[in-house]
Subtilase family protein (Algibacter lectus), 535 residues
Amino acid sequence: MNTFKSITVSAFTALLITGCGGAAEILSTPVENIDNTPLKVSDLTEIEKHNWGHLDLIKDTIPGMSVDKAYAEIIKNKKGEKVIVAVIDAGIDIDHEDLKDVIWTNTKEIPNNGIDDDKNGYIDDIHGWNFLGDTYNEQLEFVRILAKGDTSDPDYARAKTEYDEEYQKYMGYKTNYDQMSMQIASADETLSKHLNKKDYTKADVNAIKTDNETLSRAVQIAKYFYSNGMESLTAAKKQIDNSTTQINDRLNYNLNKEFNGRINGDNADDMSTKFYGNGNVKPTIKSESHGTHVAGIIAAKRNNGKGANGVANNVEIMSVRAVPNGDEYDKDIALGIRYAVDNGASIINGSFGKYYSPHSDWVRDAIAYAAKNDVLFVNAAGNEGINLDEKDVFPNDAVGIGPEVSDTFITVGALEPKYGSGIVAGFSNYGKVNVDVFAPGAKVYSTVPENEYDTKGGTSMAAPAVAGVAALIRSYYPKLSAAQVKQIIMESGLAVKSKVIVGGDTNDIKPFADLSKSSKMVNAYNALILASKTH
């Protein structure tokens, strides 16, 4: 679900051209008062930014999930049962300081002896399984369709149209971002020379008065990035370079019809072979941070004095590496789901997705298998700002808006940390039929590889927030089924009656109630209360 967004290109280009997502009775506040909650006017503090998804709408005027309130008033010192949550994603840094104590270990397997001790078909699967092998970069699914060259494929024409549009778009991005990078570097050099120091401040720049055209342009460029939240041109250059890396990856790997990243020796179109890959579930490179970030949202060790708190305690994270830098293979996902179910996971987090799926039936069968075995699958809605009732996204538990194969599959849209008309993240997909709930997903602070922390946004971040709430319910009320947990999460949320901006388009205003099946945003405090009553 990592989708590159061009946010600053048009405005910066203009600068250059000019020369310069419950039951009313259990809500923590009566539902009729929710929309009277005062909007938070001041900016979030650093502490609030790092923890906003755990805060309480009424107490803090921030649309979090009331996680801290749940611990303080409901969980307290209660002893829950261990819950295994499988994270099907990119690799997880299982040695991270904030995760190492919550990583699942397969006690039936003897490490590094080259023997399948537990006879599950996977040798040395100590902390999970890696279906990708040593690969990281991959094509998008519609590029694979084109690469096969089968014009009779019903998706071929659509794939060809999308490829032509995407390739042209990203070539344009590359040109713009290369230009931006050069302009920033030039402006930085000009300002450093004028001020006679490298570590000049915003105040230094604002104090410059000049008729020199080159210096004036450098000042305007710096001020532009200051106004967009950048503390320095060095930080701006870093962000632009990160975006450029994404663009180059898109062109060199994701959109490259000649590239083949599947080096694990397996045929992705043949389901008869299942035991490929290896037991190394860690990222192959530091920038492969998505899975580590997701794992931290669910279960980063709470209150240990380190960078982040996960939603759930009593959790063990099982790492299933199946999501590359590109589109995941249906076979890897289907087998990853079955691996998680067969090895004890009671919750699966799936922060991935795509819009072409040649073997979507394999994945739906696996989702049905999870439901049959009482496993909850928490699914990210996607980041294109579209209505999923009108366009298929994969994985899913139904074809279109047809009958569902699972009653334990829950799809999550993303919220911003500010209550009001802009509460729904502009990137978040939605759908009255195919999206179930909304949860904190924008600007979320969590773990990334090598004992570091970062802020990321996406429905990829909203899904693990809900997986964490599900883990709390299953830990403290273990007799509840996965289907009951799903219903509790949906019924116990806070209902927002007001209209909101959809897809980041201020001209597209819809009632929040029309964006998901539950019409609610997830609330851990209320969920635990309802769980206690259901239990």
